[in-house]
UniProtKB/TrEMBL annotation:
CDD domains linked to this entry: HisA
Organism lineage string: Bacteria, Bacillati, Bacillota, Bacilli, Lactobacillales
Protein name: 1-(5-phosphoribosyl)-5-[(5-phosphoribosylamino)methylideneamino] imidazole-4-carboxamide isomerase
GO BP of this protein: L-histidine biosynthetic process; L-tryptophan biosynthetic process
Recorded family membership: Belongs to the HisA/HisF family.
Length: 241
């Protein structure tokens, strides 16, 4: 199982939110590129980056910063936040970004996902963010009537090979992941790589997610407050397969 430390970018800084609430923001590093260098130095191979400004604005607001991060570190990067068009995806691929996450647009515009998968294959992931089992969109500001499992099935049929699933109620809370949701997803779409996001609080959470068969887990707040160390992440990644 891969373990991906997270860098969420807001106004040029690395931040953490609670349940996606932009009013509950904590700056965890003033320089996201320097944070990425720290991950690289520790032996991390891939990071999860979210352009929070992009999620609000619907465009790649921090693309130049993300490009610098890629050039400076050479880390594998998956990026999400505000990706609404094939042109944006083209631009990120041209920067050398390894995986591009389509979030809200996947629900609103499944044709975009189809075109992206046809063009870029496994470089395309879909982010499914849910609240009480229903898919949330527009930077988590709106909740649809679509069930997260239904959406996962639809994305699998399109040919999406990676899904990042977040239970919004757990994000940034350190309350523990919603393990039952990941169990359902791995059983429903066994051919899809499921990446867990939200609520991870301790090393044991990572091990339990690995037992469920998820492909990867994103660690955010638990790293920044010291509950999970880089050594923990690397150890789990090495031994939890």
């Amino acid at each position: 199982m891969y373990v991906l430390p997270a860098i969420d970018i807001r106004e040029g800084k690395a931040v953490r939110l609670i349940q996606g609430d932009f009013l509950q923001k904590t700056v965890v590093h003033p320089n996201p590129v320097a944070q990425a260098r720290e991950f690289k130095a520790a032996g991390i191979e891939m990071i999860h980056v979210v352009d929070l400004d992009g999620a609000l604005m619907g465009k790649a607001t921090n693309a130049s910063l993300i490009e610098e991060m890629k050039k400076e570190t050479g880390l594998k990067i998956e990026i999400g936040g505000g990706i609404r068009t094939l042109e944006q995806i083209d631009a990120y691929v041209s920067l050398g970004i390894d995986r591009i996450i389509i979030g809200s647009a996947a629900l609103k515009d499944p044709e975009l996902v189809k075109k992206a998968v046809i063009t870029y294959g496994d470089k395309i992931a879909v982010g499914i963010d849910a609240k009480n089992g229903k898919v949330a969109i527009s930077g988590w500001l709106d909740v649809s009537e679509t069930d997260y499992l239904q959406m996962a099935e639809e994305m699998a049929k399109i040919g999406v090979q990676t899904i990042i699933y977040t239970d919004i109620s757990k994000d940034g809370t350190l309350a523990g992941p919603t393990f039952e949701d990941y169990a359902k997803l791995t059983q429903l779409v066994p051919g899809v790589q499921i990446i867990a996001s939200g609520g991870v609080n301790k090393k044991a959470d990572l091990l339990q997610l690995a037992e469920l068969g998820v492909y990867g887990t994103i660690v955010g707040k638990a790293f920044y407050n010291g509950a999970i160390t880089l050594e923990d992440m690397l150890e789990v990644e090495k031994n939890a397969d």
